[in-house]
Write a structure and sequence with these properties.
alpha+beta, two-stranded parallel ribbon, 15% strand, 468 residues, 10 helices
């Protein structure tokens, strides 16, 4: 219910057409993406594919019915009429159960096919004593399907983690672009106010014409930079809208009145270094390789089982279809039974040994690939940790630097009012402040993105930021 209320409120917010500006906060955006982005639906479909794969593998143990009808008549002579129907029940233990009812008649019927008039019932089993006793193709397919189903959960997490990282990057670039536009708009307005004041002072003869020209060029320069920043903001917003979809799987458009949250409004970036490093062992990319190894191990067991001889024991109880087992229990190998054995084995086993060798090589290859993947992921995590700490230090440095630049500008303005400075120095101080603000915006955006990269490197994503 809380989630439904949150979604409804956010939808009303995004679809509102009020004239005032509304703020799309980072938390609202990231929640919306986690609910309705097509990649989220694809991640769900991925797990559904795993469940259907498992269902299909379980179908290998489904009982099945069969029936045969074979008749021959020539020159008004009934050679034979053979009819049979039964059921086969595969089991998980290398045993196959079978039940059969047959009725055979005819003048030229093979003697071994003759049965009582009312028919003959056969109930028996085939048992694998060699190949197929511990594992067979059905059990191999079932176990690999179970592994694939579990692997789809890791694949789903990896897809969502990538979506989380991409969504973070587009949001903070959008927020930084908007903040840059705000800075440049203020700079243009300040330059216009100064130009009008200097122009009036020139008219009254207080300032030379060169100051008017310098002030006008500052207006033009800042207007040019404002246009460039507005273009960057427009492009950033277009990229952001790619991640906004409604519950009907339709893309959404933000109006001009929707703006990002202020970069100065921080987000929770608390993390435990120990937990991040510990979670690395559960990284989805490593888990996928672990599932590959598990599937290959099942394949290895099955291929090794192929080196054994095929040895099957068949035993069937024969009974009249009308009286069944009414006369009591049945004594094996005493009366009314049919049994047999099958033994088969290739002389050289070259195909089987070659297949087993390939699987062993694949296991060795995948194991080394996993080892290298872990080293790369560990190095990436440490690099992102260092990047995060560096950007936090840069944020503190540029914050202090901007504070100092603003104080210098204030001092220069006071000196200018006292006639001890010049317009050139004022403009230079202002340019330094503007550049400092733009740099700080970029640092904040990169710092926020670095936090998302840090979580992604540790195998985390939406579960870190999105709560019900």
């Amino acid at each position: 219910m809380r989630r439904l209320i949150g979604i409804t409120g956010l939808l009303v917010f995004l679809l509102s057409n009020v004239s005032a500006q509304d703020t799309l906060s980072y938390n609202q955006f990231i929640k919306w993406v986690s609910f309705y982005h097509p990649v989220v639906n694809q991640a769900v479909i991925t797990t559904e594919m795993g469940r259907q794969e498992l269902r299909m593998a379980r179908g290998g143990f489904d009982p099945f019915l069969f029936g045969n009808l074979d008749e021959k008549e020539y020159n008004n002579v009934g050679y034979y009429h053979k009819r049979e129907a039964g059921v086969v029940v595969p089991t998980m233990g290398g045993v196959q159960l079978k039940g059969l009812v047959e009725q055979n008649t005819g003048q030229y019927l093979n003697p071994e096919r003759r049965v009582p008039t009312e028919g003959l019932m056969t109930v028996g089993a085939s048992v694998n004593l060699g190949q197929g006793l511990m594992i067979d193709s059905r059990r191999r397919a079932l176990r690999q399907a179970e592994i694939y189903r579990d692997a789809t959960l890791s694949e789903q997490q990896l897809m969502l983690n990538r979506l989380y990282l991409d969504a973070n990057q587009v949001y903070w670039r959008w927020a930084a672009a908007y903040q840059d536009v705000t800075v440049m708009r203020e700079a243009v307005e300040l330059a216009k106010v100064r130009f009008r004041g200097i122009r009036d002072s020139f008219i009254y003869g207080d300032l030379p014409a060169i100051d008017t020209l310098e002030a006008h060029t500052q207006v033009l320069n800042r207007e040019y930079r404002l246009q460039a920043k507005e273009m960057e903001y427009f492009e950033a917003q277009q990229m952001l809208e790619i991640y906004l979809w409604d519950e009907y799987n339709e893309p959404m458009n933000l109006g001009e009145q929707v703006i990002p949250q202020d970069l100065s409004k921080g987000i929770d970036m608390s993390y435990s270094l120990e937990l991040l490093r510990a979670n690395l062992t559960r990284h989805p990319e490593l888990q996928l390789l672990d599932f590959d190894l598990a599937s290959l191990e099942v394949e290895r067991r099955w291929r090794a089982d192929q080196l054994k001889p095929v040895a099957q024991l068949h035993y069937n109880i024969l009974t009249n279809t009308t009286n069944g087992f009414e006369n009591g229990g049945h004594v094996f190998f005493e009366n009314n039974y049919k049994w047999g054995a099958t033994v088969r084995m290739p002389l050289f086993l070259r195909r089987e040994r070659g297949a087993l060798g390939i699987v062993k090589s694949q296991i060795n290859f995948t194991t080394q690939d996993r080892d290298m993947k872990f080293v790369r992921l560990k190095a990436t995590l440490e690099s992102e940790l260092n990047n995060m700490e560096t950007l936090q230090g840069q944020f503190r440095t540029f914050s202090e630097n901007l504070f100092g630049l603003e104080r210098l500008l204030e001092g220069e303005q006071t000196r200018f009012e006292m006639g001890e400075s010049s317009l050139f120095l004022i403009n230079a101080r202002e340019v330094s402040v503007i550049e400092g603000q733009l740099i700080l915006n970029d640092v904040i955006a990169r710092k926020n993105i670095a936090y998302a990269k840090l979580l992604f490197a540790a195998g985390l994503g939406f579960e870190q930021d999105v709560e019900d």
